Amino acid sequence: QLTESGGGLVxxxxxxxxxxxxxxxxxxxxxxxxFRQAQGSEREFxxxxxxxxxxxxxxxxxxxxxxxTKDNAKRTVFLQMDNLxxxxxxxxxxxxxxxxxxxxxxxxxxxxGTQVTVSS
Length: 120
Fold this sequence. Notes:
Blueprint lengths: L1 E4 L2 E4 L4 E7 L7 E8 L6 E6 L6 E3 L7 E6 L4 E6 L8 E9 L10 E2 L3 E6 L1
Parallel strand pairs: 2-11
Antiparallel strand pairs: 1-3, 3-8, 4-5, 4-9, 5-6, 7-8, 9-10, 9-11
């Protein structure tokens, strides 16, 4: 089970870090990703990290502003979001799967999401 936290309302230009905690399962062999979905829009890939944290991947809209990290000892993945923009407003979902070497799709376990709102 994945549980996201840390969402909230911030102003444009601010920073926010959201977290995803895995309560069960082989976390240290799992790739973990963040996706987001804005109201009326399709779900969008945001970032992913390999099981050991050595490899990270980002969607085009967040490159250079967001950083994903993974702490296997704490069973937690973080998404640090800097220089937030109103277009980053969305529900952010954490997802995990066995690390098979692909990171943009086919995630099997999903959290319920945390809402991030960026005001202009």
